Amino acid sequence: MSFPVLASESTDDIIDKLNLALKNKQHYVRLKEERILNFKKIKSDDLTKEQEYNYNKTLYTEYQKFNSDSAILYVKKNLKIADELHNKDLADLASLQLVTLYSSSGKYRESEAILKSIDKNKLSKSLLPNYYTSYREFFEHYAANSFSRQYLEQIQKYRDSLLMVLDPKSINYQINKIQQDIYHQKLVIAQKKLMNLLKNASEDNPQYAMITYLLGSIYENTHQLELRKKYYALSATADIKNANKDNASLQELALVFYEIEDVDMAYKLTQSAIEDALYCNVQFRTLLMSEVYSIINTVYLEKEAKRKTELQLYLICISLLSVFLIVAVIYVYKQMKKVSRIRGELYETSQKLAELNQDITKTNNQLQERNAQLSESNHIKEEYIAHFFSLCSTYINKLENYRIMLNKKAAAKQFDEIYKMLKSTTLVDTELEELYKNFDIIFLNLYPTFVKDFNALLIKEEQIVLKQGELLNTELRIFALIRLGINDSVKIAAFLRYSLSTIYNYRTRARNKAAVSRNDFEEMVMKIGLITLKI
After folding, report:
1. Domain 31-165 = CATH 3.90.770.10
2. CA-to-CA dists, residue 43 to 47, 77, 83, 203, angstroms
3. pLDDT tens for residues 281-295?
4. pTM, whole model, 2 decimals?
């Protein structure tokens, strides 16, 4: 039996992403811990009991598949709050949450005692789905510890009851219905339903891992190994990225790699699955993994032993090769003694080498000349840096004179004139014009061919033609700043007194007019004026 599959990434790409997720596993755990810690910081001391109950319930949800001990702690707090409020519904909800946590951590007797203490007939209608879910999961966890056909029947019994009370439009109903179909071997129907759900599910959706896991189990039943590996890998990757420590996909995927005799990958996945189960204190997962681990670990150790044997063999071979190498060195030494008798023939060769040395000397002289040119270029740059410092000093003096003049007018109470001076932008405009003119002169002295080289990067119809008396225009100044290493649009906008959007538009238009690749345009602008030595 075979099924159609969604067109997507190849299995190799998916396995590569899984390996990357395994490598960054602790990073995803830290993100989860940071999210929980940030949520804990928002708690206020003046919460009502009902608000505190909901606060604890949110933390229970965060910890449920991450750290069962912490989840139990917050559920117990809610039991205490429900008792103080004398609210039976809240107490029943917390009790049912505790049932699943206890059974997953191996406390079956405590879990069963709570279930038996709850009277289904006295439960509110809204809690019936939680009641049937708790019973179903209790038998799922118990079956892992003591497998029996009877427990599988109990699981299906409570799933059937759960489907009777769930909203048929809910994702929870659809997944439970699909699990029911798989149990009754309606695999084609189940696969189509899962594919429809997968089309609308993103990787960060909590149900994504379950959907892909169930697809993997269908392909396991139909003996489609490649698809089974693919969907278990998708599920495992989603679980790792969501820091879900209570997962089954890693274990199933480990078995897949064991079947295809990739023992290293199987061992790696098994180790990760056991770490997750121990971290979350999910005992039934630990029990399931212990059997798989013992098998894979045995094969892995045998393979390691084989590798050690091979390594010893390689060491022996290397030792023998070393002996042969010593013999070869002795032989070469003897041959070198023979070579000493023909040194006379090397005289001609030495003459040729002398000629080559002359060529090298000539090349070195050329390099020295180029270095001198570079030194002179650096000297020019230093002069222009000094010029900029001089300009800065001039502006400071102007500002001081302007301050003194304003101070005098303020002392003489000539407030109208002060207001006119402050309102006028003539001074600023004049100084900006002078600043841009100085910038243009200095930049073009540093890079005299900039305008020509910049136009060479544009298509012919879009090349820039400067107006009479213009050294650079706004567009050229933007890319002159970029050539000087100022690539931040915010800084460019501040220097040229334009809005950030205007700078973005100029840069975008220039890239659109480029005769070269748009992605390489600004990088090629950065190379304008570079000195290339040709030897």
Report:
1. no
2. 8, 15, 21, 30
3. 777 677 666 666 667
4. 0.56
